[in-house]
Amino acid sequence: MGKLLDRFSNYIGQLTHAEKHVLYYIDGHVEQAKQLSLTAMAEKNNVSTTTIIRMCHKLGLEGFSELKYILKTIDDQAIPVGENTIERYKADMNQTLDSLERKHVEEISQLIFEANRVLIVAVGLSKMIGEYFSKLLIQVNKPSSYVYESHIIDLLPNMVQPKDMVIFISSSGETKPLCKRQRNFALKTSKR
Q1: Are 165 and 142 in contact (CB under 8 A)?
Q2: What one-character-per-residue DSSP string does 143-180 give?
Q3: DSSP reduced 3-state for 120
Q4: Using CA atoms in the order 21, 76, 92, 136, what is the torsion angle rounded to 10 degrees?
Q5: What is the C-alpha separation between 55 and 95, in angstroms, rounded?
Q6: Do residues 119 and 156 touch, judged by C-beta distance below 8 A?
Q7: DSSP 8-state code for residue 15
Q8: Whole-Å CA distances, 16 to 7, 61, 72
């Protein structure tokens, strides 16, 4: 699989045949795809522009422009050849732990303890962490749910009760679709 298919592998099963065709084309022709407009991409793949937009949404993206951004930066996100992946993750984890302050950890722990229910939201590579965290909470009798599907994440503001706590997890802190949904969630729930 190419870099793009690796990144969106969890979503491929949700795509129609035409949407998969477009994704496979882009994955196999990243340099050319970087240069194509939405209309040109549709013409190149003999599909409608709507098909490409639907594909982007099913991949958890806001639209074609976000896909283009990913294409332009995909090489920057790759692990350099020869780099030890495990060492990289250990370094990332240590950097994250070093940035935590004990008082913040204690405050968050207290909020979790006081919540009636904890909803964990995580997508992409953070999905495993979100699922694991939710299961840990359940083991200590804290009602918890794990949410990773974009259409359910969009419904969260309607599902949350006043004493619930929602935790958004992003290992990079920069997952654009997740960050945008978190901001939308905060705006919708703050009006209550």
Answers
A1: no
A2: -EEEE--HHHHHHHHHH--TTEEEEEE-SSS--HHHHH
A3: strand
A4: -20
A5: 35
A6: yes
A7: S
A8: 18, 16, 25
Tell me which residue has tokens 């964990």: 120
For residues 25-64, one letter each, b for 16 or more C-beta atoms within 10 angstroms of the residue's C-beta and e for the rest, the string is bbbeeeeebeebebeebbeebebeeebbbbbbbbbbbeeb
Residue 55, token pair as written in the block: 């594909």
Q: What letter represents residue 145's amino acid? A: S
Q: Model pTM greater than 0.70?
A: no
* Contact call for residues 115 and 165 (beta carbons, < 8 A): yes
CA distances from 107 to 33, 99, 140 (A): 46, 15, 18
Question: What is d(CA 180, CA 190) in angstroms, rounded to the nearest whole number?
Answer: 15
Digitized pLDDT (tens) for each residue of the chain, 192 residues in all = 577 887 887 788 888 999 999 999 998 898 899 999 999 999 999 999 999 999 999 988 888 888 888 888 776 554 444 556 677 667 767 777 777 788 988 999 999 999 999 999 887 767 888 889 999 999 999 999 888 877 777 787 888 888 988 888 876 666 666 666 666 666 666 655
The most distant pair of C-alpha atoms in the chain lies apart, rounded to whole Å, by: 57
Amino acid type, 182:
Q
Helix (H, G, I), strand (E, B) or coil at 118: strand
